[in-house]
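Memo to structure team: turn this sequence into structure tokens by end of day. - J.P.
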Amino acid sequence: SGVLAWPVKACRLGPGEQGMYLEFDVAVTRPVVLPVLSVDTVQAFPFKWRSWVWQLTNFRAAASKLTPAIRAFQNGPEKPIVKIAARHGFWSLDATFVSRFCGKAGHPVEGATTLFEALSEATKKVLGCTEEL
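Reply from structure team:
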């Protein structure tokens, strides 16, 4: 299958700063389709959109090199994409897709008839937790 993606560049804030954000390539005018043959090998970083005020507060020294903008900042360590998807509730996918995605990643979700059941089972299997957590 394929993934519709918009090319970006991962930018570090500078020496001594731990932040990493995504910068869009303004020369790119169209998204690209990237082939994905297996999700087993796909690693990713979770990102969170951050306000200019958040950037000034958390990276005061590096902020002078940035222009005011809302940016997507790294929000956790690199992990397999299936684990990131599970931690973020599998976005807003439908139950069939969640079940198929998890099955192909080695975490089969069986017997789920609703999106809630599929998400609950997928999250528990991928993260290895129970309902008590």
